[in-house]
Design a protein that fits this description.
The protein is an alpha/beta fold. The protein contains twelve helices and 16 strands.
Length: 356
């Protein structure tokens, strides 16, 4: 068992089984052994690859989108550009380059919300000289209008799970099995107040942390201006099923096997996020498929411009990146990943969404 696994097992022996949300929070954010506290998980040597690491085109298109959104929020000077969970800083660096090309002379104040010391160091190297500032949470972000980017962020926020039994919805928990390893189980009593309809045996995920964050950000953009752009993998229709998964070495793993040694994620429930934002008074744009969003922003002509100056090998790599970012089939991100924007209720249309 991993060092973090030993700590979690001791916690369970002392206090009883814990919810899936607490298990996720410990695995990812434990101050000593948490997955994101101890490593750079990105790239070929890591466990997974995100869109900004696939191609510079992704971040450049987000930068061009940001330039347009900057005009819609009144061109504040400087533009507060926030990224939640910014990885190595690649998306921010590419977006800043494209933003400054699209809006020469614009002053940008990059703010990064990151808890991992390893990733903060990588971001500092990538963004050296940009004046970037770091935050442990959104509470310390500067006031006023801001454009907030969140790429593959909501899928890592802890999620609660419940299973329907004849007596009601019982919370799914992590406990110790007969052999001493971790095992899933159910709370003995149903959770009061959870009245969703579903057949016996159905598994329901409730992204409580993500919903709370979206409500907070929605209230912010409604009150002081700005817009949130979120890109993540997930679904747009409510449903049942277990989407909790672990990723290690670019493959799927047992989420209970090695706490702190694998990334834990879940499919984002965009329908629930949309309801949370609208309930807070915001306007929601989308969600739309990532492939459609990127093509609407000009991915194809951007790729053609890059290929016009590329070698044959480089041109093939560019085509491969376009396919990976936009293909709807297996291995592509085009339809699995969704894009949604949250703004104030009177906000105008945004590029990449059907209402523009």
């Amino acid at each position: 068992m991993t060092p973090l696994g030993d700590e979690i097992a001791a916690l369970i022996r002392q206090n009883g089984p814990i919810g899936v949300d607490r298990y996720m929070a410990l695995c990812l954010g434990h101050p000593v052994h948490g997955y994101y506290r101890t490593r750079d998980p990105l790239g070929a040597r890591g466990d997974f690859t995100t869109a900004p690491e696939i191609s510079q085109m992704f971040g450049e298109l987000i930068g061009a989108w940001t330039a347009y959104a900057h005009g819609l929020i009144g061109r504040p000077d400087p533009l507060v550009l926030v990224e939640l969970g910014p990885g190595r800083g690649t998306l921010m660096a590419d977006a800043l380059r494209a933003l400054r090309a699209a809006a020469p002379g614009v002053r940008v104040a990059p703010h990064l919300v990151e808890t991992s010391p390893v990733l903060r160091a990588a971001q500092a190297r990538t963004l050296f000289g940009t004046g970037a500032a770091w935050h442990a949470g959104i509470e310390t972000l500067p006031p006023g209008p801001a454009i907030i980017l969140a790429n593959e962020f909501f899928d890592c926020l802890p999620v609660r799970q419940f299973e329907r039994r004849p007596t009601g919805w019982h919370e799914r928990q992590v406990g110790l099995g007969p052999g001493g390893g971790f095992a899933f189980g159910l709370a003995p009593e149903p959770t009061p107040g959870l009245d969703a309809e579903g057949p016996v045996g159905a598994l329901l995920s409730v992204p409580a942390a993500g919903l709370a964050l979206v409500r907070t950000l929605a209230r912010r953009v409604c009150t002081v201006g700005g817009v949130l752009l979120a890109i993540d993998y997930g679904h747009t229709r409510p449903g049942f099923g277990d989407t909790l998964q672990a990723v290690a070495g670019h493959g799927f793993a047992d989420p209970l096997a090695a706490p702190g040694e694998a990334d834990l994620t879940h499919h984002v429930d965009f329908a629930a996020l949309t309801r949370a934002a609208t309930d807070a008074g915001a306007r929601v744009h989308g969600p739309v498929d990532q492939g459609d969003f990127l093509f609407a922003l000009g991915l194809r002509p951007r790729a053609d411009r890059l290929k016009s100056r590329a070698t044959g090998t480089q041109a093939a790599e560019i085509d491969g990146a376009v396919a990976r970012l936009t293909d709807p089939g297996r291995g592509g991100m085009g339809s699995l990943f969704k894009v949604v924007a949250v703004s104030g209720p009177s906000f105008g249309p945004l590029p990449g969404f059907p209402d523009v």
